[in-house]
Amino acid sequence: MKNQIRSLLYNINKYLFSGNKFYCNICDRHYRKFFSAGENRRANARCPGCGSFERHRLMMYFLEEKTNIFSDNLSVLDIAPLKTFHKLFSKMKNIRYTSIDLEFPYVTLKADLTELPFQDETFDCILCYHVLEHIEDDIKALSEMYRILKKDGWAIIQSPFDKTSEQSLEQNDVITPVDRKKIYGQDDHVRIYGRDFIKRIESTGFVVNEDDFINKFNDSEIIRFGLDREEIINFCTKQ
C-alpha cells in the first residue's frame, strides 16, 4: 500500500509541479521545482515526479554517454535500485536485468550482498549506488561483487564519503539507530567513508577510475538538471 501511495503521488506531482526551470533525465520531464532532501536539506535534490536524487541523474547521463549498457547485449546486476531504474532497465531488450535488495518489494529477488546467490563471473556490469555505507562487512560485499563480475566487466560503485578525512569513520560500539544518526549522520549508516574508500574497493581486486564526468556540465546545467558538483563516478573494472 505504501508503494502504491508513493506511485500515485509521483504521478500527481508530474502535473502539479510541471514547469520549465528543472529537467529530470530519468523520467524525461520538466518541472518548476525540485524538492530539497537529506538531513542537511540539499536544495534542488529530489525529482517530484520519480523520486530520483542528484546521484541517479548523474549516473543516467554517465551510462548514456560513457558505457555500452544501452547498446550491447549485457547481463546487468542492479543493487537496491531506484524503482524508476528498475522499470526502465527491465524493459530494455538488449540486457538481461537482475535487481536485488533485502527489503524493496519490486526487485527481481531478495539477496544479501555479502552472500550473493550467483556463480562466478555471471554479470557483465554491476550498479551499486549508495549501498555499502549500510553494510557491516563492506569488504565481503565488494569481494562478492568482484567474484560474480565477468573478466573485463565493469561496475559503478558509489557511496557518500568525507573528502576532508583520510580514514573512514566506523566504531564498533555505534550500533543503535540513535547513535548511528548522531555519529554517521543517518540512522541506517554504519560508517562514514573517508578518502580511503577507493583503496577499500581496490583491495578486493577492482581497478578504479575516478571519473570527473560531472565537470562536463556548466553551472547552469548543474542547477537545471539538479546535479551535485562534487560527485565523482567510481568506474571499476575487473581485468
Question: What would your notes on this structure say?
Answer:
The radius of gyration is 18 Å and the shape is globular. It has helices at 2-16, 54-66, 83-91, 138-148, 177-184, 197-202, 219-225, and strands spanning 18-24, 29-31, 35-37, 42-46, 74-79, 95-101, 109-110, 123-129, 149-158, 207-211, 233-237. The protein has a domain at 66-217 and 230-237: 3-Layer(aba) Sandwich (Rossmann fold), CATH 3.40.50.150. The protein starts with a helix and ends with a strand. The strands form three sheets. It has a seven-stranded mixed sheet with strand order 7-6-5-8-9-11-10. 29% of the residues lie in helices and 25% in strands. It is of the alpha/beta class and 239 residues long.
Quick summary of this structure?
With 239 residues, the chain is α/β, with parallel strands linked by helices. It contains seven helices and eleven strands. It has a domain at 66-217 and 230-237: Rossmann fold (3-Layer(aba) Sandwich).
In DSSP terms (H or I, runs of 4 or more residues), the helix count works out at 7
**CATH architecture annotation of the domain at 66-217 and 230-237:** 3-Layer(aba) Sandwich
Query: Rounded to an integer, what's the Rg over CA atoms?
Result: 18 Å
What is the CA–CA distance across the termini? 44 Å
DSSP helix fraction:
25-40%
The global form is: globular
- Please provide the count of β strands: 11
The CATH topology annotation of the domain at 66-217 and 230-237 reads as Rossmann fold
Give the SSE string: HEEEEHEHEEEHEHHEHE
Mean pLDDT: 93
**Share of β-strand residues:** 25-35%
Sequence stretches where pLDDT stays below 50 over 5 or more residues: none
CATH first level of the domain at 66-217 and 230-237: which class?
Alpha Beta
Strand line-up of the largest beta sheet: 7-6-5-8-9-11-10
CATH superfamily of the domain at 66-217 and 230-237: Vaccinia Virus protein VP39
- Biggest sheet descriptor: 7 strands, mixed
The class by helix and strand makeup works out as alpha/beta
